[in-house]
Amino acid sequence: MIKVLMIGPARKVHGGISGVVNNYYEAGLDQKVNLRYIGTMVEGGRLRKLLRAGIAWLSFLAALPGCDIVHVNMASDNSYRRKSVFIKTARRFRKKIIIHQHGGDFETFYRKEQSEKGRERIRRVLGMGDAFLVLAPAWKTFFGELIGTERITVLPDAIAVPEAYEKSYDNHDVLFLGRLCREKGVGELLSCVPALAAAFPDFHLYLGGVWEDEELRRLSLKDKAHVTWLGWVSGEEKQKWLRRCRVMTLPSWFEGQSVSLLEAMANYCGIVAADTGGIPLMIQPQETGLLVPVKDAAALELGLERLLREEELCRRLGMAARKKVEDKFGLEENMRTLLDIYEKVLGGWKKS
């Protein structure tokens, strides 16, 4: 059995990478390979994060000699900086390395926040990967400029699709799931509330996530009749809101891909999302949802208003979104592809 040492944020961290990792565990990846997972980051203060990083580093050093593959889940900024240390160490131990890039803003990090020497270091570190996984074709193009396309595979995020059911579209409820910050388009979303509340007396916006911007949190409290903060929702609680709400929106400024968007599609939601990153891989305009320009509050409002007003359109798009997830983003097929990549990285290794 292939021995995989996987690293990424702790599985209890609120975020997309943790969701992807937990989905793999729920699908039984740890039964297909000998999987050891080390969380390199936790939420909390600086001291707590440094302590976790130190413990993760020692655990990684202890586990490294016995593994066949190091699978690195990474985004940009501090995530890249942490993981670059692990990648370079794994290379010194001559281990096979898979770099799994999840971040939606790596291009900005690379092009605008680095010196030429910094960009050279990034190219060198990323080039240490024996395989490089990205979430969408656009990222294959970008990272291909840095390390060449030969080792890059597009592996979109995937989910376990819930059982089919009959969804009701007789409400005007809109759901947002994710980090509650400006980069996720929450400011633009909140600016739409007055007009939507005037158009639909029963309109309600439900925000599921952790606040990262105090000004936006205060803004959301100005209309408690139409805006409710759910806190971070997961498991059955998340499924309850996905089943209930007619529309899901994700007006992010940038996005690698979005597990929560896939979950909404699987629950027949009408989708209004930003045209950025890996989202167009999931949403085809007028077919599986509506796309709006980034940072365009007026377009976002029009898209939401349209799906809240046109019930049959919302139903048609929701049904098509569900089918797309079933056909293209099921977790079992995704995991088979990942296992094939593991075997190819090891030179065609097959279990006995």
In short:
With 352 residues, the protein is α/β, with parallel strands linked by helices. Helix content is 47%, strand content 16%.
Characterise the protein shown here.
By secondary structure, the chain is an alpha/beta fold. Helix content is 47%, strand content 16%. The chain is built from 16 helices and twelve strands. The chain has helices at residues 16-26, 29-32, 46-63, 77-92, 106-112, 116-126, 137-147, 186-191, 193-199, 214-220, 235-244, 259-266, 279-282, 297-309, 311-328, 331-345, and strands at 3-8, 34-39, 69-74, 96-101, 131-134, 152-154, 173-177, 204-208, 227-231, 247-250, 270-274, 290-292. The strands form two sheets. The chain has a six-stranded parallel sheet with strand order 2-1-3-4-5-6, with helices on both faces. Strands 9-8-7-10-11-12 form a six-stranded parallel sheet, sandwiched between helices. Helix 12 (259-266) packs across helix 15 (311-328). The protein is globular, with a radius of gyration of 21 Å. The termini are close together. The mean pLDDT is 94.
Question: What is the strand and helix layout of this fold?
Answer:
Layout: E1 3-8, H1 16-26, H2 29-32, E2 34-39, H3 46-63, E3 69-74, H4 77-92, E4 96-101, H5 106-112, H6 116-126, E5 131-134, H7 137-147, E6 152-154, E7 173-177, H8 186-191, H9 193-199, E8 204-208, H10 214-220, E9 227-231, H11 235-244, E10 247-250, H12 259-266, E11 270-274, H13 279-282, E12 290-292, H14 297-309, H15 311-328, H16 331-345
Parallel strand pairs: 1-2, 1-3, 3-4, 4-5, 5-6, 7-8, 7-10, 8-9, 10-11, 11-12
